[in-house]
Amino acid sequence: MSELLIARNPVEDSRLRYLLRIPHAGGDLVFRTSDTWPRVKALYCHPVSLAEWPDDAEIVERHPLRSCERRGASIDVILQRARENRSQLVFTSARGRDVVFWQSPRTRKQARPNVRTPTARAQGIEQLAILVDSHERYAYRFAGQQVSTETCALPCGDYGLNVDGQLVASVERKSLADLVSSLINGRLRFQVADLAALPRAAVVVEDRYSQVFKLDWIRPAVVADGLAELQVRWPSVPIVFCETRPLAEEWTYRFLAAAHTWAVTESAALERISAARVDIATPAAATDGPTTADVRAWARSAGLPVPDRGKLRPEVWQAWRDAHPDAGPDDGR
């Protein structure tokens, strides 16, 4: 009976600690690899000649094969055991050279797309300040982009954008499992309703939309119908599927950067922001004084020159205080 064999690599200092041997019509194939099964990620396999298989190989695992057939650029391997029985050896290319990866159905779902995210600044913004909700676990770090982050309690969403003390955009991050569970228990409906109160908001999902129809613990049609209903009821809050976590992080960065440019450059956007104001829950928000947006609007009505964004000059704040002697204390900006 044909068997899949896994032996310990006799080269002790090798990072690929195991040898994988599978039968093949043209002769057995041998690979060096780093583990005995692709459980949490696809395993890189370095092909070697059959002569490298030791005569006294230290066999770690031995599994009878039900099937081992080549189909196109991959070899489908099916073992005779109840769990972890299906896998593929995929022959592909990376950075101009031929490579082989060993993947299972689980790791195939998590496979990275064959893309490289750009490093160019979004909207030309030199340093985008992004607010991260204090309840967010394993938050995006935006390490590859021109971003600074600040942790605070956001009223809605996981990643937000502050313009003149107002939350003008927010993104709610979801894994597929969290998306489905929150949709079923009704929590997602309230989250989307909160996001719809903002000028700009979105929900980003770290998976493919096609994975919705591969769910086996709930009827896929229930999830698809629920998502469609949310989009019809709150069309201003798109639900975006981004395939992987890095792509979802990249999309979030670009979305918030575009929202920032929209907020500070378009007069119509500024009017809408003032009508849909959502204060950010930070200690600085406890002051009774005016916000930068309030003083900016007053200065414009008084004919004082002020910039469209950023801090106001001290003389503008002093002019506001002189015109409002009975108002509460400002924040000293």
Offer a few descriptive terms:
3 domains, 6-stranded mixed β-sheet, elongated, 333 residues, alpha+beta, Rossmann fold, 8-stranded antiparallel beta barrel
Question: How are the SSEs placed, and which strands pair?
Answer:
Blueprint: E1 3-8, E2 18-22, E3 29-33, E4 43-48, E5 59-71, E6 74-79, E7 86-94, E8 97-103, H1 105-109, E9 128-133, E10 147-152, E11 159-163, E12 166-174, H2 176-184, H3 187-196, E13 200-205, H4 220-233, E14 239-241, H5 245-265, H6 267-275, H7 292-301, H8 314-323
Explain what this protein looks like in three dimensions.
Residues 129-209 form the ERCC4 domain. InterPro entries: E3-bd_dom_sf (IPR036625), ERCC4_domain (IPR006166), Lsr2_DNA-bd (IPR055370), Restrct_endonuc-II-like (IPR011335). Keywords: DNA-binding. This protein is α+β, with helices and mostly antiparallel strands. It is built from eight helices and 14 strands. Strand 7 (86-94) and strand 8 form a beta hairpin. The model is unreliable at 282-287 (pLDDT under 50).
